[in-house]
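Sequence, structure tokens passed on for absentees:
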Amino acid sequence: MRVDRRIFLLTAAGAVACSWKRERSSLSRAAQYLWAQQAADGGFHSATYGLLRSGQSLTPFVLGALLRVPDATAPAPAGAVDRAIASIKKHMSVAGAIGVRGGDADYPNYATALAVDALIAARRGSWSADIAPMVAQLRSQQFSEANGWTPEHTAYGGWGMGGAIRRPPDAGHVDLSMTRFVLEALRASGVDGSDPAMTRARVFLERSQNHDGGFFFSPVTPALNKAGQSAEGFVSYGTTTADGVLALRASGVPDSDDRIARAMAWLDRNHHPDWVPGFDEGESPEASWRTGLRFYYAAAIARVRPQLRVRLPEQADDGSFRNANGCVKEDDPLIATTFAVQMITRA
């Protein structure tokens, strides 16, 4: 039986329109939920994890996502953006770091990188008084010659948690995710791919990529690689491979480059809509990671390979999302909902 092609095209177009309407409604409710969590001080504070209660890393993280939501879908409440920016600035140290105020450090390099992104996206703040000190702080944190690190050191070119400057041989925690967010902040601030910080970073990124094209979390600290090891080395997995692509792009590498092409091919071969690829599918300790990183993966893959669709857990009546698996804090609705907003906005 012949099917009229015009009917097929109209049906397909209708399905796309319905899907967009659902996603737009979901995005609107998620954004409204997040804005409703803003505290009187302008910040976003975790009610789930004490480490994130200060809001130093969460505030720029949530704000950066909300700033990408179209006003027609979910406009910000009056004065909400300015209050959030004021909260971020309040936590900036004299040296330009965010996340170092109070007791425990709140992921300083991550918080500072996200703050740079949020201030630039919001078009708020002074370059010389606000953004430039944060950019300088991020530059100072790189494992570079200025801090005693050379290309012979495995940590060379990457970034760790932040805080006190580390010098050889004590690299501490160094990972691909932290490096990606710093590189994206530097790029957003106008740092070119030919800058020494970028060329050093590419050394670290190349050390974090496997022959199969995928990436792993850290060439410095074996225990940080959540998918474990094989006879060939550390196992590639989805979140790190998406991070690797985003980090390479931020450092100035074009998509036509073989390093990115091989990473894209790995994602195309291994993608799964319901969990992070690269982990054991059986009942094993790794199984918690493949579902625990579900929202992070969704947000990253939407930027790297938007045609690879994902399915998130059902949205709650209040507009929030939550991961039942809390191994990487995605059971905090502020975190899961922000990742969901990032994903839907990109999709």
